[in-house]
Amino acid sequence: MSNASRLSLALESGELSLPDAGRIAVFAPRAGQDISPLPADRCRIITGFRPDHDYFAGQGFACSTEPQGRIVASVVFIPRAKPLAQALIAQAVAVTDGPVIVDGAKTDGIESALRACRVRAEVSAPLSKSHGKLFWFAAGSGFEDWNTAEPTSIDGGFVTAPGVFSADGPDPASLQLVDHLPLKLGSMVADLGAGWGYLSARVLERSDIEELHLIEADHTALACARFNVADARARLHWEDASRWQPITLMDTVVTNPPFHTGRAADPELGRAFIRSAAGMLKPRGQLFLVANRHLPYESSMEQHFAQVSEIGGDNRFKILLGAKPRRQAR
Q1: 255 and 113 both lie in a single domain
Q2: I need a labelling partner for 14 at 20 to 30 A (CA). Which of 107, 172, 176, 210 fits?
Q3: Are residues 239 and 135 in the same domain?
Q4: Is 92 in contact with 72 (CB distance < 8 Å)?
Q5: CATH of the domain at 289
Q6: What is the pLDDT of residues 52-100, one digit of tens each?
Q7: Count of alpha carbons within 13 angstroms of residue 53, beta-carbon side
Q8: Are residues 64 and 179 in the same domain?
Q9: Of 146, 173, 206, which closes a domain?
Q10: CB-hemisphere CA count at 13 Å for 159?
Q11: What are φ and ψ of residue 51, in 5° steps?
């Protein structure tokens, strides 16, 4: 991959060198990313995104959501969200005694990160390749104000954190979905891709619910949901919603699924949520899904549910109801 090519080139050229011993932290690599230029036995993957965690754990890497102890070198693969990218760099600086290496694509804001880091540290000449850049600097002071990963309060008494989806307030699609949910959802309900918990908090206004399972892959968002959904009926799971299956089948699934991989729209994410929902529902269970109107989810809904209808929406969003999941979905 392009990120690995930049890292390989920097190390092979001798311009960048790593300490001969000690642990190396790798912040926020994405599943499938080639980090083979790094010594695997010395690396710890730092990621709060469950699919990435599971991928690298499956490759034999030690993984955690936070760095542990001091680090001799760090590699930060910056995400697209600028506040989160800055927080990751600041976190790396705070725990590293050697070089902090920053890598990213132009579409993820690497140019902006480079300019901002130059103000705070003596930065190497950037290595440019494959529509991205890699640079490094010695860890030190000057990045403390970037360490803004703590939750912040928003209207409605909720808390969110930098980089989580819809951090400024409830997503408009979730607002629409809430308005179209029936008063009775059954006793067992799941929220796939629960985010920081707005939809779940509203669902739990129903007294007949016995358990609501929040399934969320973003560890930071789930930590916010733990505060926002302070209800004894809530069960929080740091899991990939496209793969999670409950012990007991659900009466209802609600979801506002993600539909981007990086900057590109990826309808397969929503389709995976539909497949997963159909597999976790009782024979007369229901799926309530909200999506941008242009996303082609109807055929997938019809594949996995005997009854499919549009129950609401506008020119931006549509709300789909799937009932009676087809048993081959499990």
Answers
A1: no
A2: 107
A3: no
A4: no
A5: 3.40.50.150
A6: 999 999 999 999 999 999 999 999 999 998 989 999 999 999 999 999 9
A7: 15
A8: no
A9: 146
A10: 16
A11: -60, -35
Residues 6 or more apart in contact with residue 232 via CB below 8 angstroms: none
Alpha carbon of 71 to those of 48, 74, 92, 146, 167: distances in Å?
18, 7, 9, 19, 30
Return phi, psi of residue 55, to 5°. -65, -50
pTM score of the predicted model: 0.90
Range of the domain at 113: 2-146
If you search the block for the tokens 């690298």, which residue do you land on? 56
**222 shares a domain with 124:** no
Q: Provide mean pLDDT across the span 247-273.
A: 82
C-alpha 200/C-alpha 67 separation (Å) is 30
DSSP assignment of 134-170, as one string? EEEEE--SS-GGG---S-EE-TTS-EE-TTSTTTTS-
Q: Do 89 and 191 have their domain in common?
A: no
Other beta carbons less than 10 A from residue 57's beta carbon: 13
User: Cα–Cα distance between 147 and 143 in angstroms, integer?
Assistant: 7
Within this chain, do residues 206 and 247 fall inside the same structural domain, yes or no?
A: yes
Is the distance from CB of 124 to CB of 135 less than 8 angstroms? yes
Q: How many structural domains comprise the chain?
A: 2
Indicate the DSSP class of residue 47.
-
DSSP-derived letter for residue 42 is G
The helix/strand/coil state of 195 is coil
Give the whole-angstrom CA distance, residue 262 versus residue 240.
17
- Asked if 271 and 167 sit in the same domain, the reply is yes
Which of 97, 122, 146 is a domain's end point?
A: 146
- Please give, one letter per residue, the 3-state secondary structure of 81-126: CHHHHHHHHHHHHHHECCEEEEEEEHHHCHHHHHHHHHHHCCCCCC
Q: Are strands 234-238 and 211-216 parallel, antiparallel or unpaired?
A: parallel
Quick one: tokens of 216? 């969320």
**Mean per-residue pLDDT, 165-174:** 93
Specify the DSSP element, H or E, that contains 324: strand 317-325
